[in-house]
Amino acid sequence: MTPTFLVNPNANCSYNFLSSTVMASCSTFCPRIPNNFRVPPISSFPSKPLLSLSFKAFSCQASDASSQDKFSGQVGFLGLGIMGSPMAQNLIKAGCDVTVWNRTKNKCDPLISLGAKYRSSPEEVAANCDVTFAMLADPESAIDVACGKNGALSGMGPGKGYVDISTVDGATSKMINGHIKATGALFLEAPVSGSKKPAEDGQLIFLTAGDRSLYDSVAPLLDILGKSRFYLGEVGNGAAMKLVVNMIMGSMMASFSEGLLLSKKVGLDPNVLVEVVAQGAISAPMYSVKGPSMVKSQYPTAFPLKHQQKDLRLALGLAESVSQSTPIAAAANELYKVAKSYGLSDEDFSAVIEALKAKSHDSA
Amino acid sequence: MEVGFLGLGIMGKAMSMNLLKRGFKVTVWNRTLSKCNELVAHGASVGETPAEVVKKCKITIAMLSDPAAALSVVFDKDGVLEQICNSKGYIDMSTVDPETSCKINEAITSKGGHFLEAPVSGSRQPAETGQLVILAAGEKALYEEAIPAFDVLGKKSFFLGQVGNGAKMKLVVNMIMGSMMNAFSEGLVLAERSGLNPRSLLDVLDLGGIANPMFRGKGPAMLQDNYSPAFPLKHQQKDMRLALALGDENAVSMPVAAAANEAFKKARSMGLGDLDFSAVCETVKVLKHSS
């Protein structure tokens, strides 16, 4: 699907409205800032005129960071879902200057009450921020927010950075990268490993790739949001790493589900299976955390099943692109598809166990 | 306490050695008698046949490789049945199907003997370090009597009720393990084929919700095509087959396990049966579309 995006060739986005003191502290972040700043014609601006923007020179950092690890600048955050909302909150709590946008505006309210600014489109957020994060649900949303109508692209330019934390396929990431770079801005793909609780606790794992200088600049922000970060090289590598990890995870959850169900059907207590697994070589936090609720047929959503299935589908696509057969992942993917057909898309991905159970003919 | 030990393979040798080191009197037997020598050097006695061992010991533990071997030491000439009686206990720690276990239980108890099935979770290293997880079922009184030995052999024991439950629990655990190893293999190969550094994948996995000792322990060796056996692939495939049979009997849907079993079968056909079960990774590497 070809996205429609808005790039006004006359909008010389090579402006900056940073005061000189902030420019100095930003020197590592904005390598291309010209010494004098240019004020483009007012007509090319979507909303507020430049000069009404008051810039606060302050910095935010992780609580255990050294004084060197500061980020000075305005941070945009697009997408306030299960992940984006706690992530934006963590940035605000760490003292960052955050501007938010979400497709459904009321999701922004809790952030605004914590001190976030609000803009009514990705374009406006990007235009008013130095670095803009995006945390969307899937490739379609990621493309739309970056390159669609009133998309971030139109607000990007030299001196700015776009960090896409969404989990997408490599081709989508490369496409967004191409469009962002064409404005003169920097791009970093940065999907994360970790779901709702790690997002809330600032314990995510960043799998980044793209512009090294942008990675270095936003490292203090990544350290607020996460417990570790990887720089994996060229755009596409972060996306691939994330898909491989989630492919393994999806297969593991499907296999665990088979085990729980089999244990119950042959007269064992599935809770004891969870205990036994926790003692041995295959003991994984995911099993201990989710096992007990799965046994009770409860699937509180930390990672929606529809997203796990999306990731498996994309991983299978990646495997095909490098001529590799992945029979286990393919079998697991089928189970997630069945679970979706049972209406379990928005449940936690552990609800895949339901796909293994017999359904009566007249169940909903 | 005097304990008999039948079967000195990868597991049996390490387990009987631990018992010796912790002060148990152990009488060993192995089908290939020369395997007993090292245990004898550490103070074990030798029984020429399973029957001889049972005659000498109050409790006899068995650690055989598969159902056929487990049945053989019990039912064959000079087997356990010839000497089992009311004052003796037999603990079979082999991994077998529930039917085999029930068959052995019936034979032992009908001669007045006491029986416990006690398959373990854990391979060579936990066997050597006494860190096995023991999944016992059968006679509770024999279980209580065996606890001093179990405390040496393992880090935790479960009593799961009637005979058959231990076997079932073991098969379910190994089914998950076999599928996980396949998923891991697919991931490692995909990472490499996509231009990533597989070591980075190992580092990422170790930080998150799916980190586990098996990935941590075997990942680095797999990246170097090192499949030195801790748990032979042929035994893993046997366990998957038995787990699938259990699923068959109970009409339980198990598509991922079925796919994993196919991979292990393929690995056996490639001659990898005696290598560690992580060698199933090699089957992922050969599956390449022609471009």
Automatic annotation (TrEMBL), chain A:
GO (cellular component) term, any one: chloroplast
Residue ranges of domain 3-hydroxyisobutyrate dehydrogenase-like NAD-binding in the record: 236-355
One Pfam assignment: NAD_binding_2
GO molecular function terms listed in the Swiss-Prot or TrEMBL record: glyoxylate reductase (NADPH) activity; NAD binding; NADP binding
6-phosphogluconate dehydrogenase NADP-binding domain boundaries: 74-233
Keyword Oxidoreductase tagged: yes
Catalytic activity: glycolate + NADP(+) = glyoxylate + NADPH + H(+); 4-hydroxybutanoate + NADP(+) = succinate semialdehyde + NADPH + H(+)
Keywords from the UniProt entry: NAD, NADP, Oxidoreductase, Stress response
Annotated InterPro entries: 3-OH-isobutyrate_DH-rel_CS, 6-PGluconate_DH-like_C_sf, 6PGD_dom2, 6PGDH_NADP-bd, HIBADH-like_NADP-bd, HIBADH-related_NP60_sf, NAD(P)-bd_dom_sf
Family note: Belongs to the HIBADH-related family. NP60 subfamily.
Function: Catalyzes the NADPH-dependent reduction of glyoxylate to glycolate as well as succinic semialdehyde (SSA) to gamma-hydroxybutyrate in vitro. May function in redox homeostasis and play a role in oxidative stress tolerance by detoxifying glyoxylate and SSA generated in glycolate metabolism and GABA metabolism, respectively.
This protein's name: Glyoxylate/succinic semialdehyde reductase 2, chloroplastic
Gene name tied to this protein: LOC110423892
Automatic annotation (TrEMBL), chain B:
Keywords: NAD, NADP, Oxidoreductase, Stress response
Domain annotation 3-hydroxyisobutyrate dehydrogenase-like NAD-binding: ranges: 164-282
GO (cellular component) term, any one: cytosol
Active site, renumbered: K170
Keyword Acyltransferase: no
Entry's Gene Ontology molecular function annotations: glyoxylate reductase (NADPH) activity; NAD binding; NADP binding
Classification via InterPro entries: 3-OH-isobutyrate_DH-rel_CS, 6-PGluconate_DH-like_C_sf, 6PGD_dom2, 6PGDH_NADP-bd, HIBADH-like_NADP-bd, HIBADH-related, HIBADH-related_NP60_sf, NAD(P)-bd_dom_sf
Pfam families associated with the record: NAD_binding_11, NAD_binding_2
Annotated catalysed reactions: glycolate + NADP(+) = glyoxylate + NADPH + H(+); 4-hydroxybutanoate + NADP(+) = succinate semialdehyde + NADPH + H(+)
Domain 6-phosphogluconate dehydrogenase NADP-binding stretches: 2-161
Annotated PROSITE patterns: 3_HYDROXYISOBUT_DH
Family under the similarity heading: Belongs to the HIBADH-related family. NP60 subfamily.
Function: Catalyzes the NADPH-dependent reduction of glyoxylate to glycolate as well as succinic semialdehyde (SSA) to gamma-hydroxybutyrate in vitro. May function in redox homeostasis and play a role in oxidative stress tolerance by detoxifying glyoxylate and SSA generated in glycolate metabolism and GABA metabolism, respectively.
The protein, known as: Glyoxylate/succinic semialdehyde reductase 1-like
Source organism: Herrania umbratica
Native organism taxonomy: Eukaryota, Viridiplantae, Streptophyta, Embryophyta, Tracheophyta
Gene: LOC110429082
